[in-house]
Amino acid sequence: MRAALFMLALTACGDNRATKPVDAGVDTSPLAPCLDRPDELPRPPSTQLPCELLPPGFAP
Amino acid sequence: MHSRFILLTLLATSTASAHVSLSSGPAAANKSQKITFGVGHGCDMAGTEIDTYRVRIDIPAGITSVRAFTSDFGKPRLIKTNGTLVAIEWQKPLADLQAEDFQYYEITLRAKVGDVPFSQIKWDVHQTCRTTAGVEVTVDWTEAPGGTGNTSPMLTVVPARTTGWNKYTMPAAIPAAIIPLYFADALIVWRGTSAYSSNPNTAAMIGSTPGVTPLDGDLAANDELWVRY
C-alpha cells in the first residue's frame, strides 16, 4: 500500500515535458567583446544627466 | 680654479623664459606623495638662453616627511637650519652642462602634505643657470600669484578621494572662479540641486536637465558637496 502511494506521488510530481525550460535570466548568445557590440554600450541621454551622475538622495 | 672660467653670479636681473612648474598636478590632503617640478626653460641672459645648472626648492610650512629623489641634476643636497630641513638643492656636474638651452628637466620629492584641502601651497624655487664660460645667473621664482615677478609654483591641495561618490564639507569659502581648480578631474560636483562639471558635454546636460541648475556661485564654509570621481 505504501509503495503504491509512493509511485502515485512520483507520477503526480514528475516532469512529463520533453525539454527543460530555458532560464530567462541566462544570455545564451555567444560572448563577444564590447567593441564588437557598440550598439549595446550604455550611452548617456542626449540632453539630460544620466542617473549615474545624480548624487545619492537626489530630489529636485 | 681655472683662470679661464670666471665665475660671476649675477643678481636676479635676468629672467627665465618660462615657468618652473608643478608637473605632478594637484596633491591629496594629508597624504604622502610624489611632487614633481618641471623646469621647462633655462634663463635668459642678455638675449641668450642658457642651460639650468642648479635648482633649489624651499620647503614650505606644513610640508613634512620630505624625501628627495635623485633627479636630472644628480643627487640632492639637504639644506638645514638648526637641524630643520629648509631647502633641497640639486646641482648637475659641470660636464653635463649644455652649451644651449634645449632640455626639459624634472625634479621629484616625496612629502606629506598637511590636512589642508581646498588650498594652495606656495613653493619658492631658485633656478641657477650657467654658461659654459662659467657665468651664472639666478632666477627666483618666489612671487605670489598676481604679482609682477616670477610666480612661485603653486601646489593645489585637494581632498582625499575614492572612485565613486565622495561627500565633502567645505572647510572654508572658495570663490566660484577657482572651483575648476579643485574639481578639474571630477565627473560631477553637486551642492544641493546645483552641479558643476569641467566636461563641456556634462556641463551642457546640467544646463538642460529639469530641476538642476549650474553651480556657478561661490562655495561657502560648511557647504556639503557630493563629488563623483
Envelope shape of chain B:
elongated
- Integer count of domains of chain B: 2
Main sheet of chain B?
6 strands, mixed
- What is the C-alpha radius of gyration of chain A, as a whole number of Å? 25 Å
Low-confidence stretches of chain B: 1-14
How much of the residues of chain B is beta strand, in percent?
35-45%
The CATH fourth-level homologous superfamily of the largest domain in chain B: Uncharacterised protein YcnI-like PF07987, DUF1775
* C-alpha end-to-end distance of chain B: 57 Å
The quaternary state of the protein chains shown equals heterodimer
| Averaged pLDDT of chain A | 64
Quick one: which chains have the greatest interface?
A-B, 11 and 17 residues
User: Which structural class do you get from the secondary structure elements of chain B?
Assistant: mainly beta
Radius of gyration of chain B: 21 Å
Tally of DSSP helical segments of chain B = 2
Just give the CATH class of the largest domain in chain B.
Answer: Mainly Beta
* N- to C-terminal distance of chain A: 70 Å
Per DSSP E runs of 2 or more residues, the count of β-strands of chain B stands at 21
